[in-house]
Amino acid sequence: MADWVDACAAGDIDEEDVIRWDHAGRTFAIYRSPDDEYFATDGLCTHERIHLAEGLVMDDIIECPKHNGRFNYKTGLAKGAPVCINLQTYAVRVEAGRVLVQVG
After folding, report:
1. Residues paired with residue 83 on neighbouring β-strands, in sequence order
2. What is the pLDDT of residues 10-36, one digit of tens each?
3. Which of 20, 86, 90, 104 is most buried, judged by most C-beta within 10 A?
């Protein structure tokens, strides 16, 4: 069974933004949507392993800063060239003002 891990305070992420979170030798990206929901994906682009937290968030899309590959951060779906491999997504919940990510 996957563990829920405290990643950050809910207020650490602005609306329609992303932050990097490193845990147990892995990098994740944690997003806050314009609707004030939180999501998490692998933190590196599946194209050339660039940190997505340096990318641009627009609605439910994260754009990789290197080659402008786009993913839906809610589903992990790759949205077209140059990215063709989806991102792994992770369950997220907010409790007592903390963002918890289910990693496993």
Report:
1. 80
2. 999 999 999 999 999 999 999 999 999
3. 90
Q: Among residues 103, 31, 84, 34, which one has the least CA distance to residue 62?
A: 31
Angle, vertex CA 98, rays to CA 93 and CA 102, nearest 5: 40
Q: Which residue has the tokens 């907010």?
A: 94
Q: Flag whether pLDDT at 104 surpasses 80.
A: no
Tell me the mean pLDDT in the region 48-56: 93
**Residue 27 in tokens:** 């990098």
Tokens of 100: 């918890």
- Render pLDDT for 76-100 as a digit per residue (tens, 0 to 9): 999 988 889 999 999 999 999 999 9
Backbone angles phi, psi at 30, to 5 degrees: -115, 130
Residue with tokens 């004030």: 36
